[in-house]
Amino acid sequence: MAKKAGKQASRHTVLVIDIGGSRVKVTTNRERTRRAFASDPELSARVMVRKVKALTKDWSYEVVAVGYPGPVVNNRPLSEPHNLGLGWAGFNFERAFDRPTKVVNDARMQAIGSYQGGRMLFLGLGTGLGSAMIVDGILELMELAHLPYRNGKTFEQYVGAAALKRVGRKK
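User: That's the sequence. What structure does it adopt?
Assistant: Structure tokens below.
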């Protein structure tokens, strides 16, 4: 399923949440102040929302955009993330934030944010591996991280944060 990528001015203040395997980062489209807290294999969606609300209690925003580290269908996570706790699949972020909320794959969100036209392959190296492709404004769905790569391991196991720690920066 392809989607048109592009930049459109928002009349609303948007709370932007990037859910990562080691940190959850938040900002708005207005002030560009960034705040974050540590995430871990025990972090659930419900706890994440509670922490985001506490971290942003002095911010004003009308809508929420969530970058989720995994596949998203119908504005909700399709499955549990590989680097976080349980309770994400099917979680209703719109109800939890009590505001209009858009949930997309985190790599797609990052790719759209840096897209300037033409063709772009986005590979996000962090705790895991995020991937997205935009071709002439069309966002192509990708999920490369957990595809088999070599020796029974996935791409993410070769390039994610755990691999960096295991083999070192030079290799």
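DSSP finds five helices and 13 strands in the chain.
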